[in-house]
Prior knowledge:
The chain is of the alpha+beta class.
Amino acid sequence: MTKHVAVLMGGWSAEREVSLVSGAACTKALKQAGYDVTPIDVQRDMGALMTRLYPKPDAVFNALHGRYGEDGCVQGLLDILAIPYTHSGLLASALAMDKPMAKRQFAAAGIPVAEHVIATPDEILAADVMPRPYVIKPANEGSSVGVQIVREGDNGPIMDDGMVGSRRMMVERMIEGRELTVAVMGGEALGVTEVTTHRGFYDYDAKYVDGGSQHQIPADIDDELTDEAMRLAVLAHEALGCRGVSRADFRYDGAALYILEVNTQPGMTPTSLVPEQALYKGMSFPELVSWMVENAEYDQ
């Protein structure tokens, strides 16, 4: 009997448009793999969503990004409905999305992290809360939404529009160096990709605008650094209690690796970082999304 999969996409976070692209790509790939697929553009109406989820599908492919879809909220709803879903569960999703809490878990596991302080927008606008250069990040957004680097000599506005309304900001020491990323699938690292961009850092536009970044897989680094990046990615996946697929992002300053974050809902188009690493391991995009559906779970 053909399995019925509902693909959740869209939502109402700052990453809605990215989610729609991921969801459309996953819907197409799942159909190619032989599943009966129902795409659902999630709106801020849980009653309507629950109606769309009856009769219950065999699994949900969660292609939502950002707040409410990636932070444990929709995971909790699916747990209540007892519908298996892809990616991590409620607790791991919530921990990963809250950057300060995630960094506590990483540090406790022995994974190097950059120094940081938590501040309000008013405190950040009043004065430097740590020595420059530093990075300002909303404490609970993804896809580098609202991220800004402040360097020596910068005279422009410290805060951008993406930070308006944020109550908690994380101000983190800027780690100069190379950007490396590692996908973890079923508890095993797939490979190491180096991400480069002319934009100075891997911000929202670098991630999603055509030509905004370049991906090199495997990264041009020595075997020892490759092994260490993969080890730390698996350790971070385990420290948060992730399952399914995650992606860990690192900075390498020439001497040490520092983890930036673990993304529990990484971009899912055929040219996104995780599908690229899966293809590097010989797994096509339809095979990847099929694996994710077949390994979907819910917390009982």
